[in-house]
Amino acid sequence: MHQDDRRAFLRVVAEFPVGWSRIGEDGQTQLPQHQASTVNVSAGGVKMVSAEPVAVGDRLRIEVRFSRPPLIVFTDASVIRVDSIRQGRCESGLRFDPLDTYIEQRVVRWVYAEDRRMAERRAAVRVPLQIMVTCHTLSAAGEVAGTFRARTIDLAADGARIATDSPLASGDRLRLDLELGDPPQSIHLEGAVMWGQTIPHEHWAYGIRFEGLGRLAQRALVERALEEEQRRRHTGD
Q1: Please, are residues 18 and 64 in contact by the beta-carbon 8 Å criterion?
Q2: Model's pTM, two decimal places?
Q3: Cα–Cα distance, 10 to 216 (Å, whole number)
């Protein structure tokens, strides 16, 4: 497989045990074998944490022990990046030598299955986050019919709860404009009102279900919401 194709492989966060040994100039394995663990994994390589330092250009013989389902991958790899070495912890990026086609396909399937599992788990996360948002009611043609302000009660990958003094009806279509992150990033979300209820002080709370968000966009939304919630907690905003 072409190197550019290998770099394009999906990468997921995963921690698995790794056994590795250096390869000498004669191509032979040098003992001892060291123990490490992965930080993230793709079919093209891994990010590894090891107590034993490595250097860019080192050639390693590695054994990665996947789980869920179990899979052991034996391959040679090159150290292409060393991110940090501190306090007995070396973080490095490894690029696999071309894998056997069957093994490569199994690793690709495992990575995509893990990505789906993580996306489903992310979709279930509901972040308690109170920020002001600008809401636009949309006509059947998708044009802005009105604008009002609201605050979020919480935010999830597939929807949000908002509080406002503007009355809405089930089925109303909205576009929510909000900013998340530091520095702030503008996010525009479209969805429909699924339910409504009154809350104190003559306000309403509404449940909004987002539409048209892909899995990667959902994940990014939740990650930004979590970062914003943690930032506000630390700064007291």
Answers
A1: yes
A2: 0.56
A3: 11
Which residue is listed with tokens 């009660």? 153
Alpha carbon distances (Å) from 75 to 2, 7, 11, 18, 109:
17, 17, 18, 11, 18
Measured between alpha carbons, how far is 217 from 66 in angstroms, rounded to an integer?
Answer: 27
Q: Which residue has the tokens 């034993």?
A: 52
* Alpha-carbon span 194 to 230, nearest angstrom: 28
| Whole-angstrom distance, CA of residue 135 vs CA of residue 183 | 22
Cα-only R_g, the chain? 24
Rounded to whole angstroms, the Cα distance separating 225 from 156 reads 8
Phi and psi at residue 6, to the nearest 5°: -65, -40
Model pLDDT for residues 48-92, shown as the tens digit of each residue: 999 999 999 999 999 999 988 889 999 999 999 999 888 889 999
Q: 12-48 in b/e burial notation, b at 16+ Cβ within 10 A?
A: bebebebebbbbeeeeeeeeeebebbbbebbbbbbbb
Q: Which amino acid is at 190?
A: E
